[in-house]
Amino acid sequence: MTAETVTAPQARTSMREAHRREARVGYAFIAVPMALFLTLNIFAILYAFFISFFDWGIRGPREFLGFANYQDLLFDDPVFVEKAVVNTLRYSFIVVPAQMALGLFLAVVVNQKIRGQTFFRAAFYFPAIASSAAVAVLFTFITQPDGLFNAFLGVFGIASELNWTNNSRTALESVMVLNVWTTSGTMMLFYLASLQSISREVYEAAALDGAGPWQAFWRITFPLLRPAHYFVAVVSFIGALQMFDQAFVIGGGDGSPANSLSTVVLYLYRAALVKFDFGYAAAVGIVLFVAIMAITLVQRRLFGQAPAW
Amino acid sequence: MTTAAATTETAPDRRFSMRRAIAYALLIGWSLLMFVPFVWTFITSLKDRPEALRVSLPASPDFEAWVYTWQSIDPGLPQRMVSSLLLAAAVTASNLFLGSLAGYAFARLTFPGRDVLFVVVLATLMIPDQLRIVPVYQIMNFLGLINKNPTNYLSVIIVLAVSATSIFLLRQYFLTIPRDLEEAARIDGAGYFQTYWQVILPLAAPALAAVGVLQFQGTWNGLFWPLVLMGQEKDHWTLPVGITQLQGAFDTNWPPLMALVVITTIPILALYVYFQRYFVEGIAAAGVKG
To answer: A149-180 pLDDT, tens per residue?
Structure first.
């Protein structure tokens, strides 16, 4: 492309013309997607940031408030801070490590020389194909007092008549179990792709040096999976911090029982579409966005550089 | 439904050993944990209302709950299926076209600012959908798409028209296609669009299939944007939105609800059984981020 040995001025201008043409085509090809990204994502964030400084409803006078929305949100809104934020953090810090550990475990197991590898891989991913609304409803049903889950516990001698999703002390934990169940298969596939890219020779060399499988895993596999850890952690965290569907369906739309299923995103949704307090809702969203960026950067530090982010 | 597959794959291993037995027991146990809740959902849909609350097989299995769901849900199931299908098909088609067009430009064409724009595309993955509720709702309202007409569907289609993931996955695949073929086509006088359309797209069929099934599944299952943008317009409610309605606050009638869960899941199940490879490869490709 950059063959600059051509000396004839005509050839050079036609070359430049060809480059210009290629650039024009390039912009034309990305025009529609970029227009959508710029309006529905980039503009959307800037707009949300702007209205978060206002008392902004559906209609009526819009009053500039300065940081009042943020102040109310962070200091005078116990439901937001003590319920929504605490629940979301508790949920994320338990679900993310659990999904990662289980996803990695399943990936290592499925990557062994076993029969039916394709079947097990497909089976472990299976719950992820269903709609989150469908899965949330079937989970609510299974965890009824006389449901399958309590019967399953009974097999192990644990007598339980709990209504797991409708008890303020177990509702959030139940949703944790639900999401680990549905999503660890996805995390397994993420890990599996990276596992398969580690060359056999590394393990053979380690085996020659007398390393057992346990040592090989911790000394070779685990560190070599660093980019995968980063990717899985980021995807899993972003998903966990934005948990909505399950809390919405199981918590009946308002985080019941007793705000135990109130999450940041559900709070944002209610502020916007139930209370129509758009300015306040935008402030919630900006706080969440900043938190996601911060956590992504921390994870980048933790797991080292990763490409493209 | 899926248990039939389980029995064929778990043939006993010839080199039997205690360790292998335990490993397979765990694998099979975990698989069961993945399937049983869905099978149980189907079984429950065959029961009557009081029976649903007991852990037992249905005494006289019938499809009464299915009929009840069919008759009682408003708007009806055919209309909801059309809504779900319309959204899923339109969003899938648009992601395949716009995603491959942009993916091709990012992979192959040289233009100033290309890499910066690509990073902008990827960075949008960090923006929570919920932060966009208010602006996107207002943009759609401004465009006159929050309404009672079928143009209401457009609001959801536009929001989901092209995802960063689609562009990313297709770009990665285009990068693996040898340049010779395109150069040959260009020497034969094909324009850029013609080369993309007639040479590159046919070669990228596996990647297009992977993006296609994942987009279709994601949109069919999607609850959030249909709820936010079409929540006021009953005629456009999809199957997942129906699930949230049927679930009563206190006294849920489980068998019809379970029937609806099965009905919502069956098309995706069929897609998964048929295109399993593309689901798994699509997800895996997203995992190897360079």
So the answer is: 999 999 999 988 888 998 889 999 999 999 99
Contacts of A268 in chain B (CB under 8 A): 130-131, 133
Q: Do B5 and A119 lie within an 8 Å CB cutoff?
A: yes
Compute the distance between CA of residue A145 and CA of residue A279 in angstroms, rounded to an integer: 41
- Domain coordinates of chain A in residue numbers? 9-64, 74-303
* Domain range annotation of chain B: 69-287
Distance to chain A for B268, nearest Cα, Å: 7
The per-residue pLDDT for range B31-40, each reduced to its tens digit, is: 999 999 999 9
As beta bridge partners, residue A54 has A64
Q: Is A55 helix (H, G, I), strand (E, B) or coil?
A: strand
> Quick check: bond before B75 cis, omega within 30?
yes
CB contact under 8 A, B254 and A293: no
* pTM assigned to the model: 0.87
- Provide, as residue numbers in chain A, all residues whose Cβ is less than 8 Å from the Cβ of B21: none
Under CATH, what is the fold of the domain A74-303? MetI-like fold (1.10.3720)
Domain B69-287 is found in CATH 1.10.3720.10: yes
CA B138 to chain centre: 26
Give the ipTM.
0.85
CA–CA separation, A110 vs A125, rounded Å? 12
A201-231: pLDDT as tens digits: 888 888 888 888 888 899 889 998 988 898 8
Size of interface A-B (CB pairs under 8 A): 291
CA–CA min distance B152, chain A (Å): 17
| Cβ-contact A230, A301 below 8 angstroms | no
